[in-house]
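To close the chapter, one final illustration. This time we ask the reader to focus less on the individual chains and more on the assembly as a whole: which components sit near each other, and how the overall shape emerges from the parts.
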Amino acid sequence: GESVGLHLPTLSVQEGDNSIINCAYSNSASDYFIWYKQESGKGPQFIIDIRSNMDKRQGQRVTVLLNKTVKHLSLQIAATQPGDSAVYFCAESSGGSYIPTFGRGTSLIVHP
Amino acid sequence: SAVISQKPSRDICQRGTSLTIQCQVDSQVTMMFWYRQQPGQSLTLIATANQGSEATYESGFVIDKFPISRPNLTFSTLTVSNMSPEDSSIYLCSVERGTNEKLFFGSGTQLSVL
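The assembled structure is written out below.
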């Protein structure tokens, strides 16, 4: 299930389940959205991105959904594996800016 | 993609001292960015470092506390000066590459100040 701890929200899933990580953004002018994965002791790593002229984009085992009406972004991970355990950050930017605003982050824990 | 080498990977420092973090990129980049990530928190931009000009600092960060050098298009340093325990964080270097706005990050420097 999903819970909000003292720091990061945490999502715990069983290996093989599908995971959905959610992100709300506040800037209606944002037109570019990215999901990053940060494993323990490492820097964030790009997973997938989407521009505001799209509402869905698929990668390998990952799908990003964008709902501009309610300013909501989600990352879906199919057949979650223990190696997917990490903190996931959404980020938004506008007007071609290289300075995104990062969301709070969600800790995904995958149980074997 | 980009290969970004950041060092040290971690350090434990005494209050009042300074630490310089180095960031080396495998190819030339225009913009380099320094972020701070406090324990259990998201990423906060400290400053943008462009070669040949002064770094641009975000609100809440000043040059005297976080001096930055950018001597060429593949290298930058961030110094955390006169450290206090509140400076204990992960410090991350990042760069932009290619035609879109995604960033590539170094592995970070875990700083603990006693």
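The interface with chain B takes residues 6-8, 32, 34, 36, 41-46, 49, 89, 93, 96-100, 102-105 of chain A (CB under 8 Å). DSSP finds no helices and eleven strands in chain A. With these observations in hand, you are ready for the problems at the end of the chapter.
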